[in-house]
Amino acid sequence: MTRMLILAALAAALGVSAQSTTTGLSSECTSALAQIALNSSSACLSPSSLIPILTSSSNTSIVDSVDSWLTNVCGVAACTNDTLSAIVTNVTAGCGTELSALGFSSTDTATLISTVQEFYPTVRQVVCLKDGNTNCVTETLTNLQDAVGSNLTLTNIAGLVASGNDTNDTSIPSSVTCSNCTKAAYNTVNTDFPGLLDSENSTLQDQCGSSFTGQ
Ligand SMILES: *[C@@H]1O[C@H](CO)[C@@H](O)[C@H](O)[C@H]1NC(C)=O
Ligand SMILES: *[C@@H]1O[C@H](CO)[C@@H](O)[C@H](O)[C@H]1NC(C)=O
Ligand SMILES: *[C@@H]1O[C@H](CO)[C@@H](O)[C@H](O)[C@H]1NC(C)=O
Ligand SMILES: *[C@@H]1O[C@H](CO)[C@@H](O)[C@H](O)[C@H]1NC(C)=O
Ligand SMILES: *[C@@H]1O[C@H](CO)[C@@H](O)[C@H](O)[C@H]1NC(C)=O
Ligand SMILES: *[C@@H]1O[C@H](CO)[C@@H](O)[C@H](O)[C@H]1NC(C)=O
Ligand SMILES: *[C@@H]1O[C@H](CO)[C@@H](O)[C@H](O)[C@H]1NC(C)=O
Ligand SMILES: *[C@@H]1O[C@H](CO)[C@@H](O)[C@H](O)[C@H]1NC(C)=O
Ligand SMILES: *[C@@H]1O[C@H](CO)[C@@H](O)[C@H](O)[C@H]1NC(C)=O
After folding, report:
1. Is 101 a domain residue?
2. Which residues line ligand 4 (CB under 6 A)?
3. Number of H-type helices and E-type strands within the chain
């Protein structure tokens, strides 16, 4: 279930956006997101380079635009805790309808802020990992796209996550799951949050060999 956690987390974020693009966001939410995008403190998320991803047409591969966004995000200073707090506060205030559809209650805002603050540095480190000159997320998405044999688009990546479970993991070749990139991602998460990925320890070792999860 968690074997593809890193990929799934990214894909889920994109999938939620894809869903929102098709179902339409409330005007409050759109306006909150616009406020965030316009606020200079949000430069740490490079919001303007997210637009090509979110507006890509249905059959277009998102890999190139994800790569551009990551290049920008990883090239600017990280968000401060104050900025993260302001962004989460504004999103929960403006996008309450959308978030409650995902099972989130506005009373959870303080918890959400500290959770985001706690995980953000690790997530940023993982999505900015590089293999030589290539971003690791880009490399993994490219490998996955080659393995799947068709473009990774906003629509099919959401479907992949929605239906994704262990049943189909075996269809993803070890060249995708057992790369130096996924190993580095695994070790980064495991260093910052020991035990978080323990449940996939054995399955990762089954597929990738025992050296994969060792430091
Ligand atoms: C949060 O919302 C306030 C009030 O609408 C706005 O002034 C501020 O720029 C927003 N901050 C961020 C980071 O979006
Ligand atoms: C996407 O691909 C499908 C099937 O290949 C095709 O029917 C459809 O017209 C394409 N859509 C766009 C926007 O290119
Ligand atoms: C896949 O995406 C690329 C853009 O990255 C596009 O040029 C190409 O036509 C797409 N392929 C198909 C089969 O839709
Ligand atoms: C950016 O957002 C912060 C926090 O919400 C707010 O204090 C600041 O005034 C905003 N800046 C601009 C230029 O809107
Ligand atoms: C940011 O906030 C988190 C938890 O809310 C805290 O653990 C972390 O130390 C803070 N980081 C900085 C740089 O203050
Ligand atoms: C999972 O596998 C089944 C049967 O092989 C297939 O029909 C389904 O499309 C696959 N789902 C994904 C997300 O690859
Ligand atoms: C995984 O998907 C299969 C069918 O695609 C389903 O039968 C099975 O219950 C799912 N497992 C989990 C844990 O969701
Ligand atoms: C992975 O890294 C090792 C050493 O860091 C290197 O020898 C190996 O060639 C790399 N594998 C790939 C597929 O890049
Ligand atoms: C994960 O694998 C390592 C190396 O084999 C082992 O020492 C550790 O006990 C495993 N952890 C779990 C929770 O299975």
Report:
1. yes
2. 39-41, 86
3. 13, 2
Q: Which ligand is nearest to the CA of 162?
A: 6
What is the domain range of residue 140? 2-174
Q: Can you tell me the distance from the alpha carbon of 122 to that of 134, in angstroms, rounded to the nearest whole number?
A: 19
Closest CA to 154 of 16, 1, 49, 3: 16
Task: Give the H/E segment covering residue 194.
Answer: none
- Asked if the structure places residue 52 within a domain, the reply is yes
Any atom of ligand 2 within 6 Å of the Cβ of 100: no
Residue 8: the pLDDT is 46
Strands (E), the chain: 130-131, 134-135
Q: Using a 6 Å cutoff on CB, does residue 150 contact ligand 2?
A: no
Which of 83-92, 146-155, 201-210 bottoms out in mean pLDDT, i.e. has the lowest? 201-210
Q: What is the pLDDT of residue 163?
A: 57
In the structure encoding, which two tokens stand for residue 114, read together? 């500290």
For residues 127 and 137, the answer to whether their CB atoms sit within 8 Å is yes
- Identify whether the C-beta of residue 5 lies closer than 8 Å to the C-beta of residue 200: yes
Cα–chain center distance at 154 = 13
